[in-house]
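Researcher: Here's the sequence for the chain we discussed earlier.
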Amino acid sequence: MIKNAALKKNGFTLIEILIALMILGIGLVSVLAYLPTALDASKKAADITIAALVAQKYIEEIKSASINDITFADTFDTAEVFINDSDFTGFYYRIDVSDTGASGTKDVTVDVRWNFKGKYYIESFNTMIVKYNPG
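Model: Thanks. This is the structure I predict for it:
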């Protein structure tokens, strides 16, 4: 009889194992419920990074333009319509170049738009371009 009592204390009962599995299952389902939200947040963050790259590309293009091109901003100003970016499919940009009143200084805004899950997102990037023309 002493041997039977010792054997009963060594293992888990079927009820204990089922309860442990149920608690583990509830925990896993709770964690997995947040997975789609995390994936959406990751995709949106990647899209914002691409939008920044698109804006940087056009701001650098404007910065490298001659003083005459930046003075007559019609070359770059696309504020009326979004234009499809050739390097990043699904991303559209528009550029607004406005005069700040100071000589050789322009205010440049690049808006980048993209579609994510049926909704359009727009990020705006703003900078000032100063063309120093000693003479």
